[in-house]
Amino acid sequence: MNAPRASRFVGVGKPRGIRVSFEFFPPKTAEMETSLWEAISRLAPLAPNFVSVTYGAGGSTRERTHATVKRILAETMLTPAAHLTCVAATRAEIDAVIGAYAAAGVRHIVALRGDPPGGAGERYAPQPGGYRNAADLVAGIKRLVAIKNLADIEVSVSAYPEKHPDSPSVAADIDMLKAKVDAGASRAITQFFFENDLYFRYLDRVRGAGIAVPVVPGILPVQNFKTAKAFAARCGASVPAWLAERFDGLDDDAATRKLIAAAVAAEQVLDLVDHGVTDFHFYTMNRADLVYAICHLLGLRPVKKPDTGVADGRGALPFAVAEPVGARRLGR
Ligand SMILES: Cc1cc2nc3c(=O)[nH]c(=O)nc-3n(C[C@H](O)[C@H](O)[C@H](O)COP(=O)(O)OP(=O)(O)OC[C@H]3O[C@@H](n4cnc5c(N)ncnc54)[C@H](O)[C@@H]3O)c2cc1C
User: Fold this and answer.
1) How many angstroms separate the CA atoms of 108 and 78, rounded?
2) Is 173 part of a structural domain of the chain?
3) Average pLDDT rounded to a whole number, residues 107-122
4) Is residue 256 part of a domain?
5) Which atom of ligand 1 is nearest to the CA of 281?
6) How many other C-beta atoms can be found within 10 angstroms of the C-beta atom of residue 155?
């Protein structure tokens, strides 16, 4: 008989072996704000390691990203991570954003180069007087922390199992990842992928290059196949034929699409667990249902407030977890 699968044993009643993080984007309208907060409220009791908020292309969401991160700090016990890019801003402008985050209590930044103002596909040229690339930005954050004597800021960066579309080779990509880690990044989060072998092959090369930080797989539950496919084409992720086949014929059948999406994501994350992966970053697209179900499969259960026993998204207290999950009390 084969050895039992590790994924059969992640679960309730055991120390928390799985850590998750959730990525959201800042809402544009009041309606989107409502659905974002419904998603946050639903997912917060799962006590994620952190929740991240993206930074719109070209810095277009600077204020909205900031407002969302501030609201997370003010209204929940979650640890927010603010995404930040080098695009269309001088060093002084970006340093001001970092300073404002530090002052607001943000202790984690996802540092990125970003796409050119004309969108992915256009040739990237650094902003005159700006940070040249993500490694330069990571170094800038760490320098600012030292010069201004700020509380330390944890820095996460991107990683690309299938190579970044601008990159001439996987080797060049891994050199860039190494430069980001050498500059002070302590975690890489991958672009989404659908074939786990791509991740494991990449991880072997990353470790072979002497990069020791966690390389957390980014998981995109396929809420909408057409959107996911278009998104994948822009960011250089491949969409295997078997995945298209699974969604084939379901354009007018939302209920079945959702079940298939859950099955596909479940198969992916449980296989990763079977191969020793313990950390997951979910691209939530500001929707909770699929991510919540997958986290449930991963053995995560709502953490209850000890006084009320109620699992409450707003101000959810990540109590009763068996090991630190990065959640933080603000003393409010
Ligand atoms: C986890 C994650 C979160 C993200 N969040 C955001 C976000 O909030 N906002 C946003 O706008 N985008 C976001 N992105 C997308 C990202 O900004 C784009 O992929 C962008 O094109 C590259 O930024 P980076 O920091 O990944 O680049 P880098 O890591 O600096 O570069 C990526 C690769 O491209 C190659 N490369 C870079 N510059 C050049 C060059 N000039 N010539 C040749 N090769 C080059 C390098 O080999 C490098 O490895 C995210 C991506 C990931 C994976």
Assistant:
1) 12
2) yes
3) 88
4) yes
5) 1
6) 25
Q: How confident is the model at residue 142 (pLDDT cuts 50, 70, 90)?
A: very high
Q: Decide: 180 and 157 in contact? Cβ < 8 Å.
A: yes
Do the Cβ atoms of 97 and 130 come closer than 8 Å?
A: no
Once rounded to an integer, what is the mean pLDDT over residues 307-331?
37
For the chain, how many structural domains are there in total? 1
- Tokens 């607001």, residue located: 104
38 is catalytic: no
Residue 86 within any structural domain of the chain: yes
Residue type, 327: A
In which domain, by residue range, is 161 found?
Answer: 18-297
Asked, for residue 319, whether it belongs to a domain, the answer is no
pLDDT band at 319; cut points 50, 70, 90 = very low
**Percent of the chain predicted with pLDDT > 70:** 90
Q: What is the identity of the amino acid at 278?
A: T
Tell me which DSSP letter residue 322 carries.
Answer: S
Dist. CA 171 → ligand 1 center (Å):
15
What pLDDT sits at residue 69? 97
Candidate list 23, 38, 63, 195, residue with the active-site label: 23
pTM given for the model: 0.92
Ligand 1: residues within 6 Å at CB?
54-55, 57, 83, 85, 110, 112-115, 120, 124, 133-134, 158, 164, 166-167, 172-173, 176, 189, 191, 218, 235
pLDDT tens column, 232-287:
999 999 999 999 999 999 999 999 999 999 999 999 999 999 999 999 999 999 99
Residue 50, domain CATH: 3.20.20.220
